[in-house]
## 1
Amino acid sequence: MELDLIRKNDAEIADLIEEELKRQQNTIELIASENFTSETVIAAAGTVLTNKYAEGKPGKRYYNGCEVIDKIEKIAQERVKKLFGAEHANVQPHSGAQANMAVFLYTLKPGDKVLSMDLSNGGHLSHGSPVNFSGMYFDVVSYGVNEEGFIDYDEVEKLALENKPKLIIAGASNYPRIIDFKRFREIADKVGAYLLADIAHIAGLVATGLHPSPVGYAHFVTTTTHKTLRGPRGGVIMCGEEHALGIDKAVFPGTQGGPLEHIIAAKAIAFGEALKPEYKEYCKNVIANANALAQTLVDNGLDVVSGGTDNHLLTLDLRKIGRTGKDIANLLEEVHVTANKNTVPNDPQSPFVTSGVRLGAAAVTTRGFTVEDMKVVGEIITNVVKHSDDKDIMDKSAKMALELCKKHPLYAKEGA
Ligand SMILES: *Cc1c(COP(=O)(O)O)cnc(C)c1O
């Protein structure tokens, strides 16, 4: 990172960037939506490409001087299409929420019906939450998960048949199990709905064949690029050729202005990294690590939603223990573990308090954490849940966490 240059010219901001780097280095990052992108990706995001206006798309821009930008954006498109086997890709969405917004704009008119997963059951704000534009301008019907924490596809079908939505969304921010995209498409076809698969969280697992792909089933696939995919913060939309023009127009001029070409270059690099065999190994390790963490918690007598995980994340269910997600997430912070509170299915607590903590393995696996390390992480979390009143155990847990951070350095190479 160009920290020296920044320090020379703006010490106030440089100091804070360094403080944040230290925070990332000295905490066990279990926020399931976060990851550590490569230094190459970070470098590309900090380049002169930020200076260029490139409204439009490669070969069809509104401003002159886009010949080089066009080449970069085309490479990003080609790489992401290859990664997912998609016919068409738009790499301009600034974020996952922006990608979804463009699909809404293309497929729906205000007041149209949408069937999506309830936020408190693992869905995402941009899938129709009342506080998001998607919930304000559209008529949203929600499905949830059953008592065991699994999507009940018969229930989804029943809701679809009853409500005849125009758009069905498959995909979640907090669902630890395989999503059956084929079944979702069958349901969508029964009612003539479009199917949007939002793979923001599981994109890396889908790209490497470790989770079944929605490509070929969903009419539209949206994703973020910064979660398991391990790229810069951003979004992508993929679809078949028949929707390419409409989706491109929905991104620009429909919902965005100039694309962030420095971020698109960083996305291209991240897609290139994800096409390498090492990345598949990484994704395999992510799943193994999430499993080891879930198993350790269960072995220690704690509950996890659905009893385990098929992917990179899991949710600790604190109802039986009588603790709240808010308290435990704050206590974890005291022992150098970062995670977020999250509702569990049928949560008796409010979304600000919650009875769960969501835990993800994508970021720590990038640092090199192994299954053995994850067992230690599981012990640290168990200590906090069961013995937060015992200062000695809390101190010992903090030490264990810092040791793991030291064992797996982050951005420690020269120049970082
Ligand atoms: C994270 C996430 C998003 C939104 O991503 P942002 O980049 O934060 O806008 C959309 N959908 C799902 C399912 C997500 O998990």
## 2
Amino acid sequence: MSQHDSLSGLPGRHFLFVPGPTNIPERVMRAMDRPMEDHRSSAFPALTHSLLEDLQKIFHTVDGRPFIFPATGSGGWEAALVNTLSPGDRLLAVRNGQFSTLFINCAERQGMVVDVIDVEWGDGVPPKQIEQALMADTAHEIKGVLVVHNETATGVTSDIPAVRQAMDAAGHPALLYVDGVSSIGSLDFRMDAWGVDLAITGSQKGLMLPAGLGIICVSQKAMAKVETAGCNRCFFDLRDMSKANMGGYFPYTPALSLLFGLREALDMLLEEGMEHVVTRHHRLAEGVRSAVDAWGLKVCARKPKWNSDTVTAVMVPEGVNGAEIIDLAFRRHNLALGAGLTRMAGKLFRIGHLGDLNDLMVLGALAGVEMAMADAGAKVEFGKGVGAATAYYQQNPAATR
Ligand SMILES: *Cc1c(COP(=O)(O)O)cnc(C)c1O
């Protein structure tokens, strides 16, 4: 380790612009910095119940039941699948990036048979194709539809209400599984209104915490499958979790520091108001996109309607290696950018703009991107992107309170 705060060895604040983990607000850090306690004390249920109640507000659900596991988003996938399905069950899934690929992989490793709709990386989920596939399944063999709300690998946000409409138009009873790991707590997400049965997230993105919690929310319709689901499970068994949670406890030792942090993070989000959280992310993202335009570069999302307000994937100019931009940004400018994953390696870099951020932090990151692009051999007119974003933020002020 170096004498400085970040692994880069450079002084000053580290500019964390990967799309998770995100910046942890000082308030949340202070809330986590306290001694351990007995998680079986008589005072503990008040904390558990308050977290589960307030999580419902983040998911926008009244009947859906949130569950908190010591895990990550990937553990959330597994928890959602094994508690509601049996090996051999058929699923329908859309693959449009690395996270949807991994979600499908998780289901396959649990013994499910997945019909995959492949689309271009950079495309959103195609509701029409989902509708057609479900219409063709007259025997209702398909037990679930798997989609990623915000494909973090490509910076693509899909239209989940349209997926629900497609399922209803087909009159199909399959459960709707939505990975909301990089959307819930940042983008508009409405579990009840959109008819989502299993919503999945993790702690280190919109919830502004360290990694370590896998959080899922389960509709009543999905809860009804838990008893009969045939998958083996122990750690992720919702029957144990549900029983313990009713009393305000956990079936095993909870990640207590993270729960204290979650309490504070939920307070912050709810104090701001989820609608304001959503508009804040949109505004920050618009500034980033205006910079990308000014650089003359393209984003990976193939239509503007799919542009993500939590992460922008920037296609690098011809002859420049995206991985080099990222490495130089880190080593020279103390700026962490997201890499291009698997088939996108080297072709793009990602700017995460979710969680605890403001205009000036984003402008600093954009200045770092300009320098790192130049470091890596790209032609850059300094200030072009930063100037465009500055103008956008100045001309579209955030609502003050
Ligand atoms: C980060 C992420 C995941 C994986 O979460 P982990 O916490 O790393 O297990 C899954 N899906 C999406 C869309 C993500 O952005």
## 3
Amino acid sequence: MSDLPGIRPQPGIMEIALYQGGAAHIAGRDSVVKLSSNENPYGPSDKAREAAVRATHQMHRYPVTDHLGLRTAIAEVHGIDPDRVICGAGSDEVLQFATQCFAGPGDEVIMTQHGFSMYPILTLAAGATPVVVAEQARRVDPDAVLAAVTPRTRIVFLTNPGNPTGTMLEADQLRHLAEGLPAHVLLVHDGAYAEFADDGFRADLDLVEAFPNVLATRTFSKIYGLGGLRIGWGYASPDLIGVMNRVRQPFNLSTVQLAAAEAAMRDRAHVERCRSENAKWRDWLTAALRDLGLGCDDSRANFVLARFPDQATAHACDDALKEDGLIVRRVGGYGLPEALRITIGDEAACRRVAHVIGRFMAERNRT
Ligand SMILES: *Cc1c(COP(=O)(O)O)cnc(C)c1O
């Protein structure tokens, strides 16, 4: 910090490792298939696109501050109370509200071994201390999480379904976890992939209704195909929402974001199509990878985790996929160096991935 005499960042900030996004380009290639960021290959609802374009006519006006239209759409679709909903620029912003409001210097924030990489970033930015709890064979162990709670614990972050594992805690395990947490600990259920898990999955919303210390977050970036627009939401008790609204900037979502998200939420046919296509090709790719002798857990999300015998093989296979214009994700940063996370694309993309990995494994077995 010698260039900044006297100017000192807050404690924790210089410990943050910059977020690594999924690659989008391969040097020397114009046409690639990006399967590295869990994006929806079918894109958003046409109705969302049209609503966004219409909203551009209002770009000279400030947006509403209360997000009532979007909160009402979310509430009607999910059968929940709009007064318990808060909207953010991606669910990342809602996770940030929670961390900023409820954790600070001297506090501990629990996350699990393969949990989402934003949690340590947000924790350190708030000056708090990340505490990482081991998973059992790529599954969150609720009892291990409960055993890690101390009087200093303020937040437990749970990615469910897990990213990059794709595994999931079911409603009874979630309840067990929530029941075991002391009242001073906020459980954040990050359901970025919840819509892919089951038709009408709502165990996270039920948990919020049963426990005053639970925040459920969802996003428009994954099944709704709006990652580029940045919209997410949270559901919690009115008291928690009231706290978080104090740190939310009044104009955190633009008119265009709000209009697109509301139309996307109401287009249930599009969501259903995306869910069923994803489930079909996820199961197909899982079976294809297992036929090749690779490890692959049942995934409840829109990606699978392919496990290779070792890191060198995983990296060599990643290189072979890149040669063919296919970009997947190395997940060494998530404690899984021997694995590659592959987003479920459309049929053509899934068939190409299976074909290239099959060719790679055949060549490897020959040499
Ligand atoms: C993609 C993702 C998010 C959501 O990010 P947005 O900010 O809503 O785009 C949150 N949690 C996990 C685990 C994710 O994979």
## 4
Amino acid sequence: MDVPDLKPHSSHWGVFRAGWQGDTLVVEPHPSDPDPSAILQNFPEAVRHRARIAQPMVRRGWLEHGPGPTDRRGRDELVPVSWDRALDLLAGELRRVRDAHGVEGIFGGSYGWSSAGRFHHAQSQVHRFLNIAVGGYVRSVNSYSAGAANVILPHILGPFEPVTRHSVTWEAIVQHTGLVLAFGGMAVRNSAVGGGGVSRHVERGAMREAAARGCRFLLFGPLRDDLPQEAGAEWVPLSPGTDTALMLGLAHTLATEGLHDRAFLDRFCVGYPEFEDYLLGRTDGVAKDAAWASAICGVPADQIMAIARQAAGQRVLVTMAHSLQRAEHGEQPVWMGMVLAAMLGQIGLPGGGFNYALGSIAHYGKRMVAVPVAGLPQGRNPVRAFIPVARISDMLLNPGAPFDYNGQALTYPDVKLVYWAGGNPFHHHQDLNRLREAFAKVDTLVVHESAWTATARHADIVLPATMTLEREDIGATTTDPLMVAMHRLAPPFAEARDDYDIFAALAERLGKREEFTEGRDARGWIEHLYERTRAALAEKNLPAPDFETFWQQGELEMPLEEDTGGIVGAFRRDPEAAPLPTPSGKVEIASATIAAFGYDDCPGHPTWMDRVEVPGGEAPLWLVANQPATRLHSQLDFGGTSAGSKHRGREVMRIHPTDAGARGVAEGDIVRLFNQRGACLAAAALSEDLMPGVVQLPTGAWYDPADAEDAKPLCVHGNPNVLTRDAGTSRLSQGCTGQLTAVQVERFTGNLPPVKAWDPPVG
Ligand SMILES: Nc1nc2c(c(=O)[nH]1)N[C@H]1C(S)=C(S)[C@@H](COP(=O)(O)OP(=O)(O)OC[C@H]3O[C@@H](n4cnc5c(=O)[nH]c(N)nc54)[C@H](O)[C@@H]3O)O[C@H]1N2
Ligand SMILES: Nc1nc2c(c(=O)[nH]1)N[C@H]1C(S)=C(S)[C@@H](COP(=O)(O)OP(=O)(O)OC[C@H]3O[C@@H](n4cnc5c(=O)[nH]c(N)nc54)[C@H](O)[C@@H]3O)O[C@H]1N2
Ligand SMILES: [Mo]
């Protein structure tokens, strides 16, 4: 067969080259990637899969009875319509809602990862469209990833981006770090992914090099494989959600044995004395000593004391997976991790201190690109109303109700139309049965999708979008040295159109085409976005090829900034000249600002608090619903790598042999996971890589109700979000708490319902 002509492209899970060999798409990772991700191999099967959406469709009830609240979403038949009909109907509905309710009646948060190209980035497109062609929308703030950290870090250390992305680099760890305390690990399956594209997966190699130099890694968490073999880590099994208690225990040993760095605490921090009163039990009569911590987290007290003693006096880095704060009181481990690093006197030293989310995504621990990278301007949104992103069901179910957020008393807006492009709430949101009830409240749900996700199935108007392989674009991000000319690799699937073309056609119907497009087609925009980077390179006297040359070369190496340790490094070198952008200009071990909010669930210093959701009674196991190794979230669940990892069509749940034995569950059995909120099936895999009492089922298997008419249908495929609790981390940040849930597991003995998640709806 012919050797394919390979063209460059990029994805959130890696830069690659691809071409056709007969009917098969061949995908090869970028030659300079030392550790490419297997997720790339989801593309060949996905590109022409039956799960793709072929044509615009409208829900029958919406067509026949018009917009309005209904529980028929996800239940009614979908009817194929022509593009012109779909666009006319949608433009009319946008106008109706705007005239009747104002743009405050439109929710355009549209959270989701979309695809890597900077121009066709669906979330940027929908925001630009709603701002320019409709006049604004209710937005969402923060992320599912880091809802709690987004809000607390600026109060205690500094803005999220500079203190996460630019503080400690992998290069510095290889050179300087003596001990890494990795809470939640740094799973290389997670750093496989970075928004905008990753050309070099360096994490595994960096851990190997650091370990070879003598750096020790300690992994605290429920799973042994959250650090790669190469780190040579010691696993300290820790009961989920108890990191704050463990860290307090470590801090107690440091404080009582005089191992804490008092000079650092005095000069660089505020609030240590107040925190110490709590730590030593002067305020509440409870010393947070190693024995106290051990009773909560399960790590033996003498091991806690030994770790604290070992950490004092060497270059220590405290890292923490995003997952820790995607849970009840998620603010606390973030705050306490920083306090631990402060007590060790390490904050701001090369390779030391605190690096929130290092290893959780490929963006962290990298040097920054020294010139601006492409991004689509989104226009101005005059609407003030917003929600913390994970409060979507609360908003739709309780219009007008009050809620707290970061010191503000806010109310939920009254949303009539929800517009989604580039995200999958039936993947990302918690308590999906509740989400279905929430979506039943609106007049209209509009979805652009390239595949038949459950979100698309619940829409009133579904518009088929091209996937990245079917478009030209630029791949780039502020933490990757390569800008990629993403060439088109396939024609659009069936009638699919680019989000941009869909929005341009809608803008035309709303009399705003020229304003939305600025007279450019997609290629025109890509050249326009490239020009900003080219001009910045030319200004620095660096090679700055014209667009045609860049496009032919397929990529451009970008200059990187020096590794200076960012704002935290500068503060450590000279705290008076470079104060932190916190209220005190220092590290805030206690925060007067947060204390003044008066939140019972987020007091003024790191605090251990009891949780609502804990295993016991009818739900005795912890479910860890973490990131999937074989795909990004729910994207291309039907691709080869993802589909190939399932067993009998179901997502695989890991369980400790002791827990499996107690339930008569054997390797490969189909099991039912359930709690008061819902139930799903999965295939069991027995493993000693997790703690007893913990089961693990990754996110991303498409929601597949056995009978859509049920109020709480069984998901036959294995989506853990039918089980998770839909509650905010605290009144401070209202972040998502989807990581940890109490469940029961039993062997499934009924007739096994077929998985239909990837079959298109009949219509
Ligand atoms: N229980 C639990 N839940 C979680 C998490 C957890 O740990 N536990 N993790 C959370 C986290 S961190 C996150 S970030 C979220 C992720 O949640 P999402 O970002 O919503 O998940 P994705 O599956 O990436 O959804 C992206 C969707 O966009 C579509 N898409 C891709 N490209 C395009 C395009 O060009 N145009 C259009 N129109 N559509 C496109 C894809 O087909 C896909 O359906 O999930 C969260 N949910
Ligand atoms: N392959 C792949 N990579 C991804 C993604 C993906 O979908 N697929 N998603 C990306 C996105 S958007 C994000 S935000 C990041 C998310 O990054 P993370 O949130 O860090 O990723 P998770 O896999 O959810 O969690 C990491 C590990 O934390 C451990 N853990 C859970 N709860 C606790 C706890 O209470 N204490 C401790 N110590 N450990 C705990 C679990 O064992 C879990 O495996 O991942 C990114 N990387
Ligand atoms: Mo995320």
